[in-house]
Amino acid sequence: MSTKGAALFRGLSAFPMTPSDEGLRLRPERLAILLERIVAAGADSVGLLGSTGSYVYLTPEERRRVLRVASEVIDGKVPLIVGVGAMGTQDAAALARDAEEGGADGVLLAPVSYQRLTSAEVHGLFADLSAATSLPICIYNNPTTTGFTFSEELIGRLAELPNVVAVKMPFPASRDVRGEIGSLRARLPEGFTIGYSGDWEASKALLAGADAWFSVIAGMLPVPAVALARAAIAEDRAEVMRLEAGFEPLWSLFREFGSFRVNYAIAPHVGLTGLAPPRPVLPLDAVHLLKVEAAIRHLDEQVGLGVALA
């Protein structure tokens, strides 16, 4: 059991979309733009091929292509974390090996499955992945998507595996994130990274002592996301409140429609035109596209986007 490599998951991890058009044809030049903005803004890491990055919709070759583009653009400037979730253990292991060979610094694994998995099966999945790669592994606890909820007891047992060093958590339904973090820390080795997703709750988690924010919006609008993360990590509550007021209209849309769809609606306003979510996911309708535009303009006026609005 070791937490070597846990530090690369700390801070603000920006998860970009994988830009594609209506035919699901990858747009590598658009991905390069997103990655360059993330690095320039000062994010602590890039989370490639997460849920925001449409990993489940892509073939292994497409995923390798995305990784090649990212490795070339990032070129070691910040750590690169790559999602390797897949329906079968062999596929996930192969993707982890691809990530290691392609220049990733760590991997993120969700227990993707058509059949609902048991705790024993999920433990076996992580044990097999730990044997397949020497890269640090982050547990992706995403029950809304996978249908599987990691218990604290299971997370503790997974942390005993050689290179499982971090967990990406959803904000707790109890709202007691400080209590959850304390309970997890009691089960986990010193240095194990505990991070949270759910952008509209992330500053609360950081203020409560979380080590990381795994962020959707940082992949699209990294400058204001970095500002919010830095304020929360510094426990500057007044600045957090000011920044959150700028973000709130956008968070409201994230909660209503999901960040995945809203992200595609943001893209053309920051110069990323001609993109579409993978079918059967549909773009937002015209009425809600106007709400997205208004939310972005509000954020720009209150906080600043760090990029010119198109």
TrEMBL record:
Transmembrane segments: none
Domain of life: Bacteria
Catalytic residues, chain numbering: 140, 168
GO molecular function terms noted in the UniProt entry: 4-hydroxy-tetrahydrodipicolinate synthase activity
Presence of keyword Lyase: yes
Keyword annotations of the record: Lyase
Coiled-coil parts of chain: none
Ligand binding (pyruvate): 52
Any single Pfam family the record assigns to this protein: DHDPS
Gene3D superfamilies referenced in this protein's UniProt entry, alphabetically: Aldolase class I
Similarity comment text for this entry: Belongs to the DapA family.
Protein name: 4-hydroxy-tetrahydrodipicolinate synthase
Organism: Poseidonocella pacifica
